[in-house]
């Protein structure tokens, strides 16, 4: 697969993730660990079927270093547990935008990879994006709502975990994409244990909620991870990071279109600042 095609494949994941917030909210009050367990079980099982059909099942586990399993399982479990919690503990549009600081962090962290270095543009872009995050959390002239602070912190953890996972996946790029199926199934198992320990089982109360939950498992919490793995390992990670900045816009517009969020000037300004800051950082990476 060519570098350009791999980059385009990775962007397919971004398009699917733009629906993650909308589908998560549409599911309803399903506990986050329960939702994570259900969706990752679907995504992992679908991946195993694909691997078995192509005859590469043994390649998913043979000779893979232990650190790769730690990065993959820890990244998927940590990110989604935090993300689902963020959407249920804070307004979905604001939580989604904070979580989508991960493209910016990918640009920053990729500067630490061998052959790369951090430049002034990286730092400047980070400052601009953080100003945008401040507008998301408080809005102009408002104080941070203490009741939503746990959700905002969970969303920030999402951005940090996913950017680290993506850059480290590039660092260990020889691991086959088939390992993602195992990552998903292991994450499902961990999520189930956490659900049984800390949560009460609640299933969607409507048919549309069930449809949204299955759609999560097949798309944003399924196919997207296989596409992303190909993109960050074989494609242009800087270009892919830049293209990923479309995700906050698409995600927020989807929430507004579905009636889960209202348009506002502060939301627009925050989106522009976060996206603009990320683009500044990405441009610095190309120099």
TrEMBL record:
Transmembrane ranges, per UniProt, are: 7-27, 33-55, 67-87, 93-113, 120-138, 144-168, 180-198, 210-228, 240-261, 267-284
What domain of life?
A: Bacteria
Q: What cellular component terms from Gene Ontology apply here?
A: membrane
Domain EamA: from-to ranges? 10-137, 150-281
> What are the coiled-coil residue ranges?
none
Keywords on record: Membrane, Transmembrane, Transmembrane helix
**Where does the UniProt annotation place the signal sequence?**
none
Is Ribosomal protein among the key words of this record? Answer: no
Which InterPro entries does its entry note? EamA_dom, EmrE-like
This chain belongs to the protein called Drug/metabolite transporter (DMT)-like permease
């Amino acid at each position: 697969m060519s570098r350009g095609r791999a980059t385009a494949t990775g962007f397919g994941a971004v398009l699917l993730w733009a629906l993650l917030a909308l589908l998560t909210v549409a599911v309803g009050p399903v506990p986050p660990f329960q939702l994570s367990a259900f969706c990752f079980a679907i995504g992992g099982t679908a991946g195993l079927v694909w691997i078995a059909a192509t005859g590469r099942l043994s390649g998913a586990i043979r000779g893979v270093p232990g650190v790769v399993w730690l990065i993959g399982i820890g990244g998927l479990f940590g990110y989604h547990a935090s993300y689902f919690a963020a959407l249920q503990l804070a307004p979905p549009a604001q939580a989604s935008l904070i979580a989508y600081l991960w493209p910016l962090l990918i640009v920053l962290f990729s500067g630490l990879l061998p052959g790369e270095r951090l430049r002034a543009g990286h730092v400047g872009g980070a400052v601009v994006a953080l100003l945008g995050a401040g507008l998301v959390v408080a809005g102009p002239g408002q104080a941070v709502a203490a009741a939503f602070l746990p959700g905002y912190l969970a969303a920030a953890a999402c951005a940090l975990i996913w950017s680290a996972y993506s850059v480290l996946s590039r660092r260990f790029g020889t691991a086959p994409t088939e390992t993602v199926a195992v990552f998903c199934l292991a994450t499902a198992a961990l999520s189930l244990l956490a659900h049984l320990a800390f949560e009460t089982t609640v299933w969607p109360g409507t048919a549309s909620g069930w449809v949204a939950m299955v759609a999560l498992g097949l798309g944003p919490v399924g196919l997207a991870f296989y596409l992303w793995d190909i993109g960050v390992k074989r494609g242009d990670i800087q270009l892919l990071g830049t293209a990923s900045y479309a995700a906050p816009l698409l995600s927020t517009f989807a929430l507004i279109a579905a009636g889960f969020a209202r348009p506002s000037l502060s939301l627009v300004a925050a989106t522009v600042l976060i996206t603009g800051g990320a683009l500044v950082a990405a441009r610095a990476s190309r120099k």
